[in-house]
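cron nightly-structures :: item 1 of 1
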Amino acid sequence: MTVNLRSLLLGAAVPMALLLGYSFRPTPAAEAFTYRQFSTIESVVPGGMGRSRVIISDQGDQEVGKDLLNFYSMVGINFKNIANNDRIIVETINQYVSEGWELHTVNTGVQSPNGDKGGNGIFITRYLFRKPL
């Protein structure tokens, strides 16, 4: 069996060219974004004594707030207040999306000054948006 030097070189050159072509491709540049965030703080203080708000940082880092209603009234949990808060939050999200912002991440947390004893506290949710530069 005779090995043709030309076909041997050609057979080795093709995989080598593919490997070198793949290895030296430029790395794509990461897309740059600008970010904007708003937070909701919703009180779970019994009797409606807490304060609930939407806190927005605008482009000038100024705090812009919208009032939310407390989860509890004097008679217990108030589902109308929760529905009202949900409406305000969704309206805020829809406003940002209509301005070209993408909802990137949502983080939630609970803070109770009484530890695990409950009774008082807040729910906080942070909504992080981004938009390509």
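cron nightly-structures :: done
The mean pLDDT is 81.
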